[in-house]
């Protein structure tokens, strides 16, 4: 669980297992995908993520998710859940023990927030580091706020 002292976000164990599988080891390219989940009155719950696609652009220090496969997954999940499982943001890996967003990451989540038609007024950015470490932030119209790990 992570919190910004106003709101909490919970990440399911299934999602954590996927993050662990894609932790960026030495010499491996960055990986990433989208976050899907539920929004409740007092917290958000990330229960599903997409895995990297063969159509993504990636290198040791760069990841750019392909839009078409991700949008198809968003549409399928939304339809199957009758509109309750929604797009909540983006995730990708960094080869750092204490991951932090790069300028490119910050610009990407700002741009995605501005250009995406959504029913929510925020998006999450999760950067998966090495050794079970994460940077979790929430992009709103005003800023990208880091969440602290609370559980």
From TrEMBL:
The keyword Zinc applies. InterPro entries: JAB_dom_prok (IPR028090). One of its GO terms (molecular function) is metal ion binding. The keyword Protease applies. Residues 19-129 form the JAB domain. One of its GO terms (biological process) is proteolysis. Keywords: Hydrolase, Metal-binding, Metalloprotease, Protease, Zinc. Signal peptide: none annotated. Pfam families: Prok-JAB. SUPFAM superfamilies: JAB1/MPN domain. This is JAB domain-containing protein.
């Amino acid at each position: 669980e992570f919190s910004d002292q106003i709101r909490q976000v919970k990440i399911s164990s299934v999602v954590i297992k996927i993050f662990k599988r894609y932790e960026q080891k030495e010499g491996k390219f960055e990986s990433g995908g989208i976050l899907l989940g539920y929004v409740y009155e007092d917290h958000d719950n990330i229960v599903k993520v997409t895995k990297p696609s063969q159509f993504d652009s990636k290198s040791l220090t760069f990841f750019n998710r392909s839009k078409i496969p991700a949008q198809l997954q968003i549409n399928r999940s939304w339809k199957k859940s009758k509109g309750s499982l929604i797009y909540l943001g983006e995730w990708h890996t960094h080869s750092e023990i204490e991951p932090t967003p790069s300028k490119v990451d910050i610009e990407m989540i700002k741009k995605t927030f501005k250009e995406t038609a959504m029913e929510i007024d925020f998006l999450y950015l999760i950067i998966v580091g090495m050794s079970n470490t994460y940077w979790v932030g929430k992009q709103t119209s005003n800023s990208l706020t880091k969440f602290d790990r609370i559980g």
